[in-house]
Amino acid sequence: MRQLIANYKRHKMIYWLTLPVVVYFLIFSYLPMAGLIMAFQDFKPSKGFFGSEWVGFQHFVDFFTSPNFWRVTRNTIVLSLMELAFGFPAPILFALMLNEVRNRLFKRTVQTISYLPYFLSTAIIAGLIRDFMSSTGPISTTLAPIMGKAVNLLSVPEYFRAIFISTNIWQFMGYISIIYLAALTRVDPELYDAARMDGAGYWKQCWHVTLPGISSTIIIMFILNMGQLLSVNFEKILLLYNSAIYETADVISTYIYRQGILSQNYGYSTAVGLFNSVIAMLLILGANYVSKKYSETHLF
User: Fold this and answer.
1) What kind of fold does domain 66-121+169-294 have according to CATH?
2) Distance CA 299, CA 276 (A)
3) Number of Cα atoms under 13 Å in the Cβ half of residue 224
4) What pLDDT does 169 receive?
5) N-terminal to C-terminal alpha carbon distance within the chain
6) Is the Cα dihedral 73, 78, 81, 84 positive or negative?
7) How far is CA 244 from each of CA 141, 172, 262, 277, rounded to the nearest angstrom?
């Protein structure tokens, strides 16, 4: 206790600076966890937590035996894997390319343009995508000679995943690349000189010097991505999808929204949300365990 008090006195301002963050997570992350009890109740707002009927694991059984279970689970997994396969490496490759640009004006211009989509709200991004993908939008009209006619691309189930992943890359690639560009500045230039003296070309330098130099950053970002894998940017899906493309667009998070907010089935939607959260926790713990076992980088 004495050591804690002494440490507080030495770093008082730092503790006060962290206070808003602590309060934020307490209010919006930890206190709402008390509501998980609804997952085991036939929750009625008029009766509250203590008056609602206790149903145990019935909501989980109903979800696992529902025909919607396989659809939303499949779509969530497919979109998550596609995001991991295409969305995760995109900012790394973009940062590596930007790092090779020597013209400062061009580099800053490209960086600024690539950052802009991130600072637009999801609603604006979704509105732009809807306009571009509509039957009269520029993308649909451009593809019309190939497809035979101009159609609303967001009404075709087969196109949704490609549209969603490609627009995600456009939206987040530039901003996330900042982290990797910062990591690249820490790579010792003398390592490149030594590699060139050993006869290493550009690709060998990239493979044996650049990537190992930022490997710890890549691993940490990968672990954090695993924790958010099943969320699949559901706000954007919610703004883009419609009943015509539920077969490929409906994910666990949007299913929770429909059941909880629209159908007011609070207990059932909480159970589905708890299932989603548990899987996400297992993914991040597993990724951290593997990283800790096979490398020196880990979160905890």
Assistant:
1) MetI-like fold (1.10.3720)
2) 21
3) 10
4) 95
5) 24
6) negative
7) 21, 27, 18, 28
> Other C-beta atoms within 10 Å of 69: how many?
16
Helices 122-133 and 157-184 meet at what angle, rounded to 10? 130
Q: Give the C-alpha separation, 36 to 266, whole Å.
A: 10
Grouping H, G, I as helix, E, B as strand and the rest as coil, residue 223 is helix
Distance from C-alpha of 187 to C-alpha of 193, rounded to nearest angstrom: 12
* Gap between the Cα atoms of 63 and 70, Å rounded: 10
Give the max Cα distance, the chain.
Answer: 77
In angstroms, the CA 296 to CA 294 distance is: 7
- Contact between 161 and 153 (Cβ < 8 Å): no
Q: Residue 42 is inside which H or E element, if any?
A: strand 41-42
What is the spatial distance between Cα 224 and Cα 213, in angstroms, rounded to a whole number? 19
pLDDT band at 298 (very low <50, low <70, confident <90, very high): confident
Structure confidence by residue, pLDDT tens digits, 261-289: 888 899 999 999 999 889 888 988 888 88
Residue with tokens 């804690």: 4
Q: Which amino acid is at 152?
A: N
How confident is the model over 15-40, as pLDDT tens digits? Answer: 888 889 999 999 988 898 888 899 99
* Residue 150: partners with Cβ closer than 8 Å, 6 or more residues away: 135, 136, 140, 141, 143, 144
Give the predicted TM-score (pTM) of the model: 0.86
List 53's β-bridge partners, or say none. Answer: 42
Where is mean pLDDT largest: 8-22, 92-106, 227-241?
92-106
Structural domain boundaries in the chain: 66-121+169-294
CA dihedral 63, 65, 66, 69 (to 10 degrees): 70
Q: Which residues contact 154 (CB under 8 A, 6 or more apart)?
A: 129, 130, 133, 134, 160, 163, 240, 241, 242, 245
